[in-house]
Amino acid sequence: MELNLVDIASKKRYEAVVGDVTAYIEYIKAKDKIYLTHTEVPKSMEGKGIGSTLVLKVLEDIERQNLTLVPLCPFVAHYLQKHPEWKKLVMKGINIED
């Protein structure tokens, strides 16, 4: 699935519009760290891979910006458990295992 990800700095969130609904991940940026705090996918879009694709696109952007990830959102942490190749972005000392 192709999502058009936009970083809306004024809202402190990444957004992807799908049809007439918006999925997003909220964040806090502090120096070279980004804290992903909440993922929201509208009920009408649940179960279609939107959330996972959104997390993937955000992780790609975090990597591109050379930021250190602090995954406070349970959905993001779960994605990282399933895709350990992205754990390289996570701040040292943070355990996201089950």
UniProtKB/TrEMBL annotation:
Q: Which Gene3D superfamilies match?
A: 3.40.630.30
Which segments constitute the N-acetyltransferase domain?
6-91
Cite a single Pfam family from the UniProt record: Acetyltransf_CG
Superkingdom, natural source: Bacteria
- State the PANTHER family in the record: BSR4717 PROTEIN, PROTEIN NATD1
InterPro entries reported for this sequence: Acyl_CoA_acyltransferase, Gcn5-rel_NAT, GNAT_YJDJ
Q: Keywords for this entry?
A: Transferase
What name is this protein filed under?
Acetyltransferase
Q: Does the keyword Transferase apply?
A: yes
Please verify whether the record's keywords include Cell inner membrane: no
User: Which GO terms label this protein's molecular function in UniProt?
Assistant: transferase activity
